[in-house]
Amino acid sequence: MNSITSVELNYLVFRYLEESGFTHSAFALGYEAGINKCNIDGNLIPPGALVTFVQKGLQYLEMEANLSNNDTDVDEDFAFIKPLDLITKNAYELRKIVRDKKKNLLKERYKDKELEKKGKERKERQKERGKDRERIEKDKERGKHHADHIDDKMATDQEDKAEINNFENGASGGPKPMEISTTSPCLPVEIPSCDVTILEGHTCEVCACAWSPTGSLLASASGDSTARIWTIPDGVGRSSSQIGPLNVLVLKHVKGRAMEKSKDVTSVDWNGEGTLLATGCYDGQARIWSNNGELRSALSKHKGPIFSLKWNKKGDYLLTGSCDKTAIVWDVKAEEWKQQFEFHSGPTLDVDWRNNVSFATSSTDNMIYVCKIGENRPIKTFSGHQGEVNCVKWDPTGSLLASCSDDMTAKIWSMKHDKYVHDLKDHTKEIYTIRWSPTGPGTNNPNQPLVLASASFDSTVKLWNAEQGRLLSSFNGHREPVYSVAFSPNGEYLASGSLDKCMHIWSLKEGKIVKTYTGNGGIFEVCWNKEGDKIAACYANNTVCVLDFRM
Description:
By secondary structure, this protein is of the alpha+beta class. It is 24% helix and 34% strand. The chain contains 7 helices and 34 strands. Helix 1 runs antiparallel to helix 2 (23-33).
């Protein structure tokens, strides 16, 4: 019998951690076990492979325990054994458990037969008595039957009325008023294939995407060690074969090292003018590319993978956060680092600019620091989360900071206070990301209220009133963890992408799904173009889908 190798087992555990959302644990195992150097083709490994493998092993032990030396098949008294017993006991002990269970089963069956026999005898005696009384009380029974029929009908009518009243009063067990599900009679409209452009070319999952702020260019980042810049034509969707190879630029992050396995490109971000694209990679380098695919600079100082990077609004500085626990501000023109911030005690998970010179960082150490170029200490420290802080985002004016964590809460902070001003607690699992709406003072939609959206592994998306910290809506259309949400530029719609392969577009005004699209893989990120008529979604099946949105 062939045995599983340690390399194969490590890979199965790595995939299990990755699929379960334990991104950082998966990275640590992958790094220490050298997963990127093994020759296993990940495309051949189905989802949930480790769980399936363990279940099959337990089933094998269970079958073995139920078969005696003379058995050729499992008999009808097949006894299910607890998984813990299968793991902790040897074959002899398991067979003893099965024998004891079979003895108890035979005893129970004997008791059942005796009770059944006594029950039949009792019924026969009652039947004979009934025949003797039937003739005597025949007329009397007729009258009683008629009266009982009337009483039963009245009781039934009262029960029906009670059920109707309960339903009208909301006692039917349906969703609460703030909860929005997809079970309403007005079903969402599936986006037709003619409105979908599928971009093919990546050879590994696509984990990030970003539209250029000034044109029809879409950038994508993948685990195949490349980023790509796609030119998306105007008009209705089409297949990638119609787009053609001339309209995609491949930005290779590993050159001249054919034997080296892929280096995941983790993040992409355009500068404000749309002339430069920054990419962050597992090799610890940040790279800056022109919009025609030319490598302008490779920025090296981090000692671990880059998890997040952002341009400031002015476009003169690039900010990166790394697994090496630091954040670095880079002087783009000088092509060198300006300042390294070493405050966290764990990997830096996210970074976000407040203005052109100050920014926030979050980490696995549960802490948030607000830093400023030229300052050697944080200008503000926010502590309050009880788990890894996955994401930080400043509101459009830079006055409020939102954060979300593995502790199942999102929080809103103000530079005027040391403690959070709102603690948002309605999620039941880890919150992966958050986004502010492009509304309120200082935006293009000043008359609409400022709203915060949170996406969680509990499969829901929730909207919060930023001023009051109050839950506005809970969108319950997904069946798996939600990894990404994005507001439309006009603030009227919200797109959400999930591991259930579905992208939903929600109308905030109507509080329901108005469009939906189901792809062929889990969705890691969704984003709108500047006009608000196209949405990109990057998938685990190595593709990027661009959806035309019209209402």
